[in-house]
Fold Response regulator transcription factor.
Amino acid sequence: MSATLRLLIADDHPMFRAALRYALGEIAPGAQIVEVASQSALEAAIASGGEFDLAMLDLMMPGAMGFSSLVYARGERPELPVVIISSNEHPRTIRRAQQFGASGFVPKSAPSSVLGEAVNAVLAGEVWFPSQKADRDEGDAQLADRLAQLTPQQMRVLLRLADGLLNKQIAYELSLAENTVKIHVTAILRKLGCHSRTQAAVLVKGLALDEDGAGLHDDALRLS
């Protein structure tokens, strides 16, 4: 595997990132690995202009809402393959990851051999998911289609709107003029077919993980 590969690890647990970095170093010797620990850091890494060959993304980071980080990454860099690596390995979670644009899904409990199989498959342009996927859900498919209409900047605004931030607070966080945020909010509501900020926020809640298993954040690893 080429030593010029650039890999992005997005996970808020330092010990898990260290274990994953070690495992990826064995799979792709010489690869450059960048680590981030939050949604905002993920946005900064992707927006920096640096080209990545693969992103390994956890679903539970500060500032993220379920699949929001995946949707953001896919919207910002559609060409970047994203592999979800999560302790929530329920069949519906796996299926939703696929519907929201992931190229692969690796349970955090998986051994390094499985991680290597998934990484190699995705880098070869294939997809890799555990076999126990649930059936396609039309509601998720429609949500994915609606969110795909948003620009990356509009997605950033929407995520903060869903957190209950006011326009001036969003403007401060994103270094935008307040009037620019207002224009983005208007465009977001129109594209999503929503009549209010509250309705848009409720729509984004559809990206949240299921309650059943959503709190499972056991980072006990078998990546060695």
Observations:
- The two ends are 20 Å apart (CA to CA).
